[in-house]
């Protein structure tokens, strides 16, 4: 029997993404967040939720752009720091030992050291309670060659991304492959679906 836990934002797991933005003075900033996900395939879009009190919020509003940086687990200390410190008081790229690279498509930086980057142009802003949801159109995905397969698709085991869980506020790593999407369930259907 299931037990009621009340109304909570506990969809597990959550991604651990680092959002890159520029401030008024051109200072690169980054912020770690877990409230995000793909929200459209055509046009390709991603949604992130940010509190109005964050520097990242005002940076996105002003520049109409952001990057999503998907870090590997070896960057955990820098990623956690980017979620603790405020860009209002620190150069987070410098303090974390990361290299900001100016996107050639949007007015936002990304971290050279992270293996997968989404460059996003702000498409919609939705006010939701204490968070504002920013929907960004993905103009380009950049990936290190070392994390791509022969078909030039990112491989999760090579990226080794960080995931998190809200209830216990902990970071985790991804486990192994369980099966092929749109294939494993065919055992129930009994035939291939086209």
- Proportion of residues in extended strands: 35-45%
User: Helix count?
Assistant: 5
Q: What CATH first level would be assigned?
A: Mainly Beta
Number of structurally distinct domains: 1
Secondary-structure content class: alpha+beta
Instruction: Please list the strands of the largest sheet in the order they lie side by side.
Output: 3-2-6-9-10-5-4
Along the chain, the helix and strand elements come as: EEEEEHEHHEEEEHEEH
Query: What is the third-level CATH name, the topology?
Result: Pnp Oxidase, Chain A
Radius of gyration: 18 Å
End-to-end separation in angstroms reads 38 Å
Q: Catalogue the unreliable spans.
A: none
Number of strands: 12
CATH superfamily: Electron Transport, Fmn-binding Protein, Chain A
Question: Any guess at the CATH architecture?
Answer: Roll
Shape summary: globular
Would you tell me the overall average pLDDT? 95
Secondary structure topology:
Elements: E1 14-15, E2 17-22, E3 28-33, E4 36-41, E5 44-51, H1 55-63, E6 65-70, H2 76-84, H3 92-96, E7 100-102, E8 109-111, E9 116-128, E10 131-143, H4 156-159, E11 162-165, E12 170-173, H5 186-189
Antiparallel strand pairs: 1-11, 2-3, 2-6, 4-5, 5-10, 6-9, 7-8, 9-10, 11-12
Describe this structure in words.
This protein has 194 residues and is of the alpha+beta class. It has one domain: Electron Transport, Fmn-binding Protein, Chain A (Pnp Oxidase, Chain A, Roll). 16% of the residues lie in helices and 38% in strands. Strands 3-2-6-9-10-5-4 form a seven-stranded antiparallel β-sheet. Strands 1-11-12 form a three-stranded antiparallel β-sheet, with no helix packed on it. Strand 7 and strand 8 form a beta hairpin. The longest helix is centred in the first third of the chain and has 9 residues. The mean pLDDT is 95.
């Amino acid at each position: 029997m299931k037990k009621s836990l009340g109304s909570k934002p506990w969809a597990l797991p959550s991604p651990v993404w680092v959002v890159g933005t520029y401030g008024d003075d051109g200072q690169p900033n980054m912020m770690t967040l877990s409230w995000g996900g793909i929200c459209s395939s055509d046009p390709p879009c991603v949604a992130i939720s940010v509190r109005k009190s964050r520097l990242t919020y005002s940076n996105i509003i002003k520049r109409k752009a952001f990057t999503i940086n998907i870090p590997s687990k070896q960057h955990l200390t820098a990623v956690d720091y980017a979620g603790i410190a405020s860009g209002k008081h620190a150069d987070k790229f410098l303090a974390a030992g990361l290299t900001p690279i100016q996107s050639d498509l949007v007015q936002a930086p990304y971290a050279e050291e992270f293996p997968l980057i989404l460059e996003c142009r702000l498409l919609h802003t939705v006010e939701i309670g204490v968070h504002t949801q920013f929907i960004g159109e993905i103009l380009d995905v950049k990936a290190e060659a070392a994390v791509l397969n022969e078909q030039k698709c990112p491989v999760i085991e090579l990226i080794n991304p960080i995931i998190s869980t809200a209830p216990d506020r902990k970071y985790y790593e991804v486990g192994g492959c369980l099966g092929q999407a749109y294939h494993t369930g065919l055992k129930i259907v009994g035939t291939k679906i086209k």
